[in-house]
Amino acid sequence: MDLEQSCKTFHETKRLPIQNFWKTLFEKGDRQDILSDARYSEYFAWKPKSSNCPELQSLLEQLIDSVPDNWRTRARRIFAGRTLDFLPNGKAWRDGQVGVIEINYGVTSAAMIYSVLYCKYFEMIRTIGLDIDFTDDDSDTLKMILDEVGDSGFSPILKADSERNSWRSHRAVYAGHELLRELPASRSMDSYHESVRAIEEFILAHELAHHLLGHTADPYPRARQNSNHLDKMLQKYQVSLPEEQEMNDDQLQELSADALALFIMTGALTDELEAPRIYRASAGAIIGLTALAHIDDSWVSIPGAPGETHPDFISRFSLASHLIKAVSSDIPVGDEGGHPFGFLSQLSGFVSIILNHWLAEHIDGRSPVNVLSLTNWLFERSLELQRELEHLGLYRT
Ligand SMILES: [Zn+2]
């Protein structure tokens, strides 16, 4: 495989000029104001090497640093390119000397929308946890405050829910309503960008994993060794993929790619596990998978059904959360009381709002999560969590 050829072929197939993707995007939108702004001239003059996007290139380099030495030669010849397609998909393909990862612009668009939803959800539960006085005797006032706080977290999610159909019929994901764009004032741009990048990193890592595991039409000799290594990692952490009769081959490959992506992102693959990396991988995987399932309506499906290329959300979510829990079980509780288990619970609360809303629409007698049931769940879960962490001896003494 050859990087230069991969870069050339990617741009030819996608009919894109070999230059910074963002320059191409602004050219398409005829944004001369931005293109001629001297502040960006250096940025736009940037030349593609292993990606047509500077941010994607640095994410890819980071990921390649997180695989074992003897996996790297192959990984360094893969070109990861952004495309102008607005569907939220990634793709991995190989053809002779060419190895390509495609990340559609729709991935970025979806990552931005669902990061806004997550930031608003996070502010809501933070307010519930810190600012609301539950010892207040006046239960009517308490209910009113809760409803109002709940509204700030729930409305954006419901808005996204109502815009999904138009995303699907236009085959493009974009933030139509301000609720899907505006961040809560108390939330910093940094944490929002972190979340967007974590989602993109997870999708990139997943596609890289397809290459490394030889899932492309044209696999390579090391692929078998890499797959065996992944199996050993799964055994080590006691994480199991579904049985072969439950899933077809395509679906099993998707789950393996998720698993390898998470081992790479958390640092587990090179024995360099670190709490911040686990947090980042958790956000990227869980928010990313939730966004894709919400947009595609792929929450549940008949396991192993022929013709289904992707596993349903529940299978992917449960594999991801098992794996994250397994790699976190030796991580001590942080100085402020934070632990990846706790973060995973918060993320699960976010997932449950979106998923239950969908279930309530499709199953009789099922009611959506509201702020009261969420608050109850969060309290119960935080007590459970404390016991779990104590039991594992993860509090520093
Ligand atoms: Zn895949």
Structural write-up:
There is one protein chain. The chain is mainly α and 397 residues long. The chain has 2 domains: 103 residues, no CATH class; 283 residues, no CATH class. It has 15 helices and 3 strands. The chain has a 3-stranded mixed sheet with strand order 1-3-2, sandwiched between helices. Helix 7 packs antiparallel against helix 8, helix 7 crosses helix 12 and helix 14 runs antiparallel to helix 15. The longest helix has 32 residues. The radius of gyration is 22 Å and the shape is globular. The N and C termini lie far apart (52 Å). Bound molecules: zinc ion (ZN). Zinc ion binds next to helix 9 and helix 11.
Topology of helices and strands:
Blueprint: H1 3-13, H2 21-28, H3 32-35, H4 41-45, H5 54-65, H6 72-75, E1 79-83, E2 90-95, E3 98-104, H7 105-130, H8 139-170, H9 189-212, H10 222-236, H11 249-266, H12 275-296, H13 313-328, H14 340-362, H15 371-391
Parallel strand pairs: 1-3
Antiparallel strand pairs: 2-3
Helix pairs in contact: 5-9, 7-8, 7-9, 7-12, 9-11, 9-12, 11-12, 11-13, 12-13, 12-14, 14-15
Bound molecules: zinc ion (ZN).
Zinc ion is lined by residues 206, 210, 254, 257.
